[in-house]
Write a structure and sequence with these properties.
CATH architecture of the largest domain: 3-Layer(aba) Sandwich
CATH topology of the largest domain: Molybdenum Cofactor Biosythetic Enzyme, Chain A
Helix content: 40-55%
Distance between the termini: 45 Å
Largest sheet: 6 strands, mixed
Number of strands: 17
CATH class of the largest domain: Alpha Beta
CATH superfamily of the largest domain: MoaB/Mog-like domain
Number of domains: 3
Radius of gyration: 26 Å
Number of helices: 15
Length: about 425
């Protein structure tokens, strides 16, 4: 198999000022085409550390993808360090200079000397165009190893990956004629990890040898299958056999695969049946609505919602009876039912979902501790509400509430299919 490592450069990443989303993107794209992603490394903007880390990664990896440090300022060290590392020199690259001239002119700006310096690139690298910024990518081939350097700006990095890097890497795999590794992720809901493991049984019973992992999250348990294979076709056939084996055991809990998670599955089911949903949220503060609008075209199925955080809004805008809140409290079965029923009627949708709870860390009581959440679901035939007791962490409670609400809607949609 071909090992690939990812090296992220930047003080701001090291100190946690900025989240490292680039590595996750690169890893997912490279894994999907068959690379074995071996190492994720983050280092500061220091030449001696970068050289030492390159030495380490070159011994372990066939391909290294670097992000960051390609800007025009003094702290951007990647280009100069790679020149030194590969015993190369900077030379003027006319196509890059011409692009920079057009780039600045189109924005009504004049290039300064720092901007012009970005047209000087290592003489032995292949230049990778970047239409979204001023720093092109660079590709080096040395002693059978490949080093690719990309800008740290996510939009620019993603463009270069899609425009040239992924095609180049696919061809590299094809030419090496070596085993590759492929992964498949299956999303489940409505079942705990341990119960799922009992249903599936031992990996030794699988029809094909593979790696297998359970990955629990707030929206369900993901099953990750990994197979070593000769090529994409061989890998897809092996995964197909394992999927068939698993579906015989757990199909009732499966909601999607790979990027098709439960939210997308719910959206697709609503769209196929020409159904719509609206939400009334209290403790989640709009997080459920945000999840339901994660995908393009969500306006087909999602009409909107009300964040009824205060009791006043629950009563005056959402129409919950004041007597209901006075008698049972805002966090109760009765309030959740009225919220779900009323939001459906207000927005004239097929489904209404409500969430009301105590996210924490304050606000709990002996009979309603932090983490107590009621979720309501209304359609034309019925209104139901379920209570959940999650825990003491505020963000976890919000995420788990959203996961539970989406799972309830999925279960109801599945019932309608039968």
């Amino acid at each position: 198999m071909v090992n690939l490592s990812i090296l992220t450069i930047g003080d701001e990443i090291c100190i946690g000022q900025i989240a490292n989303t680039n590595s996750a993107y690169i890893a997912s794209k490279c894994t999907a085409i068959g690379f074995n992603v071996l190492i994720h490394s983050i280092i500061p903007d220091k030449k001696e550390i970068m050289i030492a880390e390159l030495d380490r990664l070159m011994k372990l990896s066939d391909v290294i993808i670097i992000t960051g440090g390609l800007g025009p300022t003094e702290d951007d060290i990647t280009k100069a360090t790679l020149c030194e590392y590969f015993n190369d020199k900077l030379e003027f690259h006319q196509p890059t200079f011409e692009f920079l001239e057009k780039w600045f002119t189109s924005r009504g700006r004049v290039m300064n000397d720092l901007n012009k310096s970005q047209a000087y690139l290592p003489s032995e690298c292949k230049v990778l165009r970047n239409i979204h910024g001023t720093a092109p990518g660079m590709l080096f081939e040395k002693d059978g190893k490949i080093v690719i350097s990309l800008p740290g700006v996510p939009k620019e990095m993603k463009f270069i990956m899609e425009d040239s890097v992924l095609t180049y890497l696919k061809n590299t795999l094809r030419n090496k004629k070596t085993d590759i590794v492929l992964f498949k992720t299956i999303h489940t809901t409505g079942i705990f990890e341990s119960d799922l493991a009992l249903l599936i049984g031992s990996k030794s019973n699988f029809p094909v040898e593979c790696s297998f992992a359970y990955l629990p999250s707030y929206k369900g348990v993901r099953l990750r299958i990994g197979v070593n294979c000769q090529d994409l076709e061989d890998g897809q056939e092996k995964i197909k056999q394992i999927e068939s084996y698993l579906m015989d055991k757990i199909s009732k809990y499966v909601v999607g695969s790979d990027s098709d998670d439960i939210v997308l599955s719910v959206s697709n089911k609503l769209r196929q049946k020409n159904l719509t949903v609206a939400v009334a949220e209290s403790c989640t503060g709009g997080l459920l609505g945000a999840n339901l609008t994660n995908y393009s075209g969500s306006s087909d199925i999602f009409k909107g919602g009300i964040i009824a955080y205060s009791n006043e809004i629950k009563i005056e805008i959402l129409g919950v009876e004041k007597a209901t809140i006075n008698s049972f409290g805002a966090v109760s079965q009765q309030t959740a039912i009225e919220m779900a029923k009323n939001i459906r009627e207000l927005f004239k949708t097929d489904f209404g979902i409500s969430i009301t709870g105590i996210a924490g860390p304050t606000g709990g009581s002996p009979d309603k501790p932090v983490g107590t959440v009621w979720i309501g679901l209304a359609n034309e035939n019925e209104v139901i509400a379920k209570m959940f007791k999650f825990g003491e962490d505020r963000e976890v409670n919000r995420e788990r509430s959203v996961g539970a609400a989406i799972a309830m809607l999925f279960e109801k949609l599945t019932e309608r299919e039968k």
